[in-house]
Automatic annotation (TrEMBL):
InterPro entries: Gfo/Idh/MocA-like_OxRdtase_C (IPR004104), Gfo/Idh/MocA-like_OxRdtase_N (IPR000683), Gfo/Idh/MocA_Oxidoreductases (IPR051450), NAD(P)-bd_dom_sf (IPR036291). Belongs to the Gfo/Idh/MocA family. This is Putative oxidoreductase YteT. It comes from the Bacteria. One of its GO terms (molecular function) is oxidoreductase activity. The keyword Cell membrane does not apply. It is an enzyme of class 1 (oxidoreductase). Residues 12-135 form the Gfo/Idh/MocA-like oxidoreductase N-terminal domain. It comes from Robinsoniella peoriensis. Coiled coil: none annotated. Gene3D superfamilies: Dihydrodipicolinate Reductase, domain 2 (3.30.360.10), NAD(P)-binding Rossmann-like Domain (3.40.50.720). The gene is yteT_2.
């Protein structure tokens, strides 16, 4: 039996907008694991199979399943909160409508596709007095909670600089940022906003809300372009491309057994039927030649940041890595801390004694190093007392991280111009 969280006195009633990968598969399973804490009572999702699968799994009556969030919000359900997990450019409208309807919201990141719209959402929530929490799941993980406690304990002294590397993973990058949902900034948001607003959020969290004052960035789309296309490559790997046996990015590689393929294979289609998978893959964007897509997401990028009191942060992201891994090194006046959330441990080195202590984190084997489950727990707990919890979980800090990410993208597009925040 799953453990019950004793803090819960009543069952929280939620609505879901967007029963896709995140909404249905990352957050909603919490309601199945802890049914006495939380229940989804309505869902909005235009794709009938997703809507009905979700409806059946969560025992939502047919009349409480909607094709569009507009119909669901207008119905006046007595919800404790709503989760908005539509695509990046489909957040602003439902978020504003939900807030205006007086609903507490858990909103996927990025909150919106521009800094202005992002600020407007946060302002609206403040004015309306509703809880707005953003799915910055990393901040909620046992790993970063532990790192924060260690920093706050003072063992490494005053933090002077942070170096953070986001190894995106070559296969992940090709899937999401060349072929998939985040490939084209006109249709979605820039890579640094979509993916790395998590990282700017983490810096702000670890630095205790210190403000970033200046930011600059370089980077480009350098590799996944027509200039690097091998001769005679077909537009779709599955149209007899002569390079399938040697190309790192052949769509047929979705079928190999390496663990890193599994998640992305499931995103293409969840099935054990190989033939059905291949038929779907051929029709999907995920079999397109990576050198002939309509992509413009930067495949490597660096950002330099200066915070209050001169604290510096350097961050870099790259498509060209084997693993999908975040690595963090934090340098203080008395010691340093170094580790990776994806390896569930970090070390603390003490300058005075020369001692090195390894801190191992016991992370639940769920997505995002436990972050998806932790944010659901925190959201549902906060809904028991949204006024009080707005301060702890509200979107103010998230807003700061978003503004930084938009500023970094501006700087990247303007040859590294320093943006004063
Ligand atoms: N927090 C994280 O760690 C994290 C990780 C990955 C993605 N994301 C973000 O989560 C969001 C969702 O990503 P995803 O991979 O789940 O996308 P997805 O495309 O799988 O899901 C979005 C769903 O919204 C539905 N939708 C579209 N219009 C709608 C409408 N009018 N009403 C209701 N539903 C509608 C779509 O049909 C789709 O099923 C994105 O903004 C993405 O950037 C966050």
């Amino acid at each position: 039996m799953p453990e019950r969280n004793e803090a819960f006195m009543k069952q929280i009633k939620l609505g879901l907008i967007g029963a896709g990968e995140r909404g249905a598969n990352c957050y909603a399973p919490y309601a199945l694991k802890f049914p006495s804490e939380v229940k989804f009572v309505c869902v909005a999702e235009p794709l009938a199979d997703r809507r009905n699968t979700f409806g059946k799994t969560h025992r939502i009556a047919d009349e409480d399943r909607y094709e569009d969030w507009k119909d669901m919000i207008g119905k006046g359900y007595e919800l404790d909160g709503v989760i908005i997990a539509t695509q990046d450019r489909q957040h602003y409208e439902p978020a504003m409508a939900a807030i205006q309807a007086g609903l507490n919201v858990l909103l996927e990141k990025p909150m919106a596709e521009t800094a202005e719209k992002t600020k407007a959402i946060v302002e609206a929530a403040k004015e309306k007095g509703v809880l707005l929490m953003v799915c910055h799941v990393l901040r909620h993980t046992p790993f970063f909670q532990s790192v924060k406690e260690t920093l706050d304990s003072g063992v490494i002294g005053e933090v002077k600089s942070i170096h953070h590397i986001e190894n995106i993973g070559y296969w992940h990058f090709a899937h999401s940022y060349v072929r998939g949902n985040w490939r084209n900034t006109e249709e979605t948001t820039p890579m640094i906003v979509a993916k790395c607003s998590h990282d700017t959020d983490i810096f702000n969290f670890l630095l205790g809300g210190k403000k970033c004052e200046r930011i600059s960035s370089f980077g480009s789309l350098s590799y996944f372009t027509r200039a690097n296309m091998p001769e005679h490559a077909t537009k779709n790997c599955m149209e007899g491309c002569p390079h399938n046996k040697t190309c790192l990015y052949s769509a047929y590689n979705y079928l190999d057994d390496r663990e890193m393929r599994q998640n992305f294979r499931d995103i293409v289609m969840r099935t054990d039927d190989r033939e059905a998978f291949l038929t779907h893959l051929k029709e999907s964007p995920y079999s397109r030649c990576v050198y002939q897509c309509d992509n413009d997401a930067a495949d490597h990028q660096v950002v330099s940041m200066v915070y209050e009191d001169g604290v510096t942060v350097s961050w870099q992201a790259s498509a060209f890595t084997m693993d999908i891994k975040r690595q963090t090194k934090i340098m203080g006046t008395k010691g340093e801390l170094e580790g990776s959330i994806d390896e569930d441990q970090y070390v603390v080195r003490d300058f005075a004694t020369g001692n090195e202590t390894t801190i191992k984190i016991h992370t639940p084997r769920t997505l995002h190093s436990g972050g998806d489950e932790c944010i659901m727990r925190n959201f549902t707990q906060a809904l028991l007392n949204p006024d009080k919890e707005s301060r702890r979980f509200g979107a103010e800090l998230s807003l700061q991280g978003h503004v930084m990410a938009f500023a970094a993208e501006y700087s990247r597009k303007h040859d590294g111009e320093v943006v004063v925040l």
